[in-house]
Design goal:
seven-stranded mixed beta sheet, 9 helices, 344 residues, binds NADP nicotinamide-adenine-dinucleotide phosphate, Quinone Oxidoreductase, Chain A, domain 1, globular, six-stranded parallel beta sheet, 2 domains, alpha/beta, Rossmann fold
Length: 344
């Protein structure tokens, strides 16, 4: 389908996937470019993020009121970054680079809003960086890592931190922040290459490939003295292993359960939750959008660490809107590394 100046394309969910999404679950449609009304902006998106939550929201029953499912026939959404092409709001001018909620759409018409989580947010792109970094290391993935470690896990000096899915976006930043803050860090990921990168480039002290055996045995070997904080991106067998390994008074940062996302067998809960009672372990979940007030502190710290070469993030990029369904399947299957984005 040819894109011209009068139209743009979006991807709609037309069938709810079972397990990993298939091409036939999506339809690409061509839409006329709209005109902004009073208080609105029109954005041409340049990059969109790929996130596990997108697959969660393809299910009919997701967050029971807190995280609404995508509606059949409607475009999907999520984090994107782009440039304002027309504005009828004093808050934005053409050319502004804005984070927005219009993933899966080449253009987005939306209210300028008042600075809420789902409203467009102007960002400054520092020299040497690209606007897509506001989807990863400087974006929601990075903020999630920071909020989880600092404010939910409340990591204290001298503590040992275990981060799962450390070859991915959130886990990659969480592992590096924990190293930069002086903690002993144990990481896990799903390939030898991701494990090597965590050790050699992120500077973690021990790491294992979760596909090499039982996670409980692998974690016990990697952290013989135990752990104080578990940054949980995976759930299931990883959470169970961490509960066995946590020291008394430990914390679990419940960030995500990617092992059950799109799983045909459904989520698997830990069988050893009693360990949390015996050891006085606190498990706390969070949604990053409720912690947006920490953006300025995170951005300052992240830019400083990046300038000193202490924070980086591998990336996997795809080209063109049509690649987005393949990108989400590849990410959920562990075939991508670092932050996954699609150039629109
Ligand atoms: N609470 C919040 O507000 C919030 C915000 C953003 C993200 N999250 C959560 O944070 C987690 C990470 O998100 P992300 O965007 O950074 O994704 P990501 O880690 O970049 O990508 C997901 C990775 O999870 C791993 N994985 C998939 N199935 C697995 C399994 N059965 N066991 C172990 N690992 C598995 C795969 O890597 P391997 O090769 O390592 O297996 C895969 O590449 C997700 O759970 C997501 O839902 C939460």
């Amino acid at each position: 389908m040819e894109l011209n100046n009068d139209t743009y394309r979006m991807i709609r969910l037309v069938r709810r996937p079972h397990g990993l999404p298939e091409r036939a679950d999506f339809a690409v449609t061509e839409e006329p470019v709209p005109e902004p009304g009073p208080g609105q902006v029109l954005i041409r998106n340049t990059w969109m993020s790929i996130d596990p939550l997108m697959r969660v929201r393809m299910d009919e029953r997701t967050g029971v009121g807190h995280v609404p499912p995508f509606r059949l026939g409607q475009p999907l959404d999520g984090s994107a970054v782009g440039r304002v092409v027309a504005s009828r709001s004093a808050r934005f001018a053409p050319g502004d680079v804005v984070l927005n909620h219009g993933a899966w759409q080449e253009m987005l018409l939306c209210d300028a809003g008042e600075g809420g989580w789902f409203d467009p947010m102007r960002v400054e792109v520092p020299d040497g960086l690209d606007e897509r970094h506001y989807l990863g290391v400087l974006g929601v993935s990075g903020l999630t890592a920071y909020v989880g470690l600092r404010h939910i896990g409340a990591v204290a000096p001298g503590e040992t931190v275990y981060v799962s899915a450390a070859g991915g976006a959130v886990g990659g930043v969480a592992a590096q922040l924990a190293v930069a803050w002086g903690h002993q860090v144990v990481a896990s990921a799903g390939s030898a290459d991701k494990v090597r990168r965590a050790l050699e480039e992120y500077g973690v002290h021990a790491a294992f490939n979760h596909r090499d055996g039982e996670v409980s045995a692998l974690l016990a070997a990697a952290a013989p003295g135990g752990i104080d904080v578990y940054y949980d991106n995976v759930g299931g067998d990883h959470l169970e292993a961490a509960l066995d390994c946590l020291r008394p008074g430990g914390r679990v940062v419940l960030c995500g359960q990617v092992s059950s996302v799109g799983s045909a067998t459904g989520p698997r809960g830990p069988r050893n939750l009693m360990q949390a009672i015996f050891k006085g372990v606190r498990l706390e979940g969070f949604m990053v959008r409720h912690h947006a007030r920490h953006w300025p502190a995170y951005l300052q710290e992240a830019r400083d660490l990046m300038a000193r070469g202490r924070l980086t993030l591998e990336e996997t990029t795809y080209d063109g809107l049509d690649a987005a369904p393949d990108a989400i399947v590849a990410m959920l299957s562990g075939r991508t590394a670092g932050k996954v984005t699609v150039r629109l």
